[in-house]
C-alpha cells in the first residue's frame, strides 16, 4: 500500500497543475511519441501511475519487464474506451468545487438509477482534506445498471436510456463524466416511474430481453464507494450483511468469449484482467472496458468476503451475481472483496512445483528470470502472492517489448475472462435469497 502512495506522489511531482486540460490530446500522440523519452517521463509515466495503481482496489500489481511498453498499451486502452477520467487524479480540488461537482453528479446519477430500480443504492464519499490525490467518479455514460448486448450498442440510438449523450462540461479536475443537459431537460417534467412505464410500452427501455426485476426482488443492500490514496475507489457495504446474501449484478457488455483474448493481446493484462469476466457455459464473457457498474470497484483478495454465482436473468445469458461468502461486518471492515485470479491458480501451482521454489521466494525468482507476472498485495494470511505468470511463448526473452510478448500468447491459454463464477449452475433469486432451481 505504502508503495502505491509513493508512486502516486512521484507522479504528482511530474505533472503541471493543469495537466488534465490536454490529456486527450496527449493520448492521441501515444503512437508517434512512444520512443520520445521526455514524453515518456512527463506524460506516459505519471499518467499510467494514476490509473494502474488503482486496479482491483490497489491490491494487485502488474510487474512487467518492459515497463514503458506496458504503460503505453494500458494508456491506449484508456484512450480507446473513453476512460480518461482515470487520469485526472493528480490534484486535489477545493472542498467547495467537490461539493458543487458532486451535487450535479449525484442528481444525474439518481435520475439515471431510478429507471433501473433493481440496482442497489450506492453512496459516494470523498476525502475531506487535501491529500494531493483525488479520484473522479466514473462517467455517468459508462455506468450501466444491467448487462447489455452488442446489438444494443450497435443500435444505441434506439436505447436512449442506456446510452445518454455525454456532456462536454467538465467536473472534478476536468473529468468528462456528466450527462448532456438535453437528456435531463427533455425528461425533467416526467417522473422516472412514468417514464419507465411509457418507455416499456414503446420498447425504448427494454433493450435486451430480461425479467422485470423490481426493488428488493433480488437485491436490497446498499453500498459505500470511497477512495484511498494510491488505491483508487473501493466498494464496501453500508450495513452488516449475513452470509449467502445476493448483493448485486455485474454489468457490462455480453460479448463472445474471444473478445477477452483479443483485448489481452491488444491492450495487455491490466486491461483484460480488470475488464473481462467469463459467463461459464455460454461461450460469452462480460466486457467491462467501457460500460460497467460500481462492482468494478470491488477489490481483489486471496481470502475474499464475496463470491460470484450465475442467476436467472430472463434470457439465455444468466447474470453474474456477487454474494456474501461470510458475514460482512466490522470484523472485515465491511469490505467487499473477490478473488479475481483463482482461475490461474492451478497453472501457477504446476509452474512452481516444477521449479522447487518455495512460497515467499516466488516473486524473487520471477523478477530474476525477467518474467512478467501479477503480484498480490492483499496482505491476507492466505495470500498467494503470485496471481498470474505471463503466458507468452516468448516470456523468457527479457528485453522483448510488451506488445511482441502479447502477440505470442501460448495457444493452450484459453482466456475468456476472469473465472469468477463458482460453477455453471444457474440459481434463481427471490426476495434476496438464492433458491435451488
Ligand atoms: Zn493476496
Automatic annotation (TrEMBL):
InterPro entries (alphabetical): SET_dom, SET_dom_sf
One Pfam family here: SET
Signal peptide segment: none
Domain SET stretches: 221-347
Protein name: SET domain-containing protein
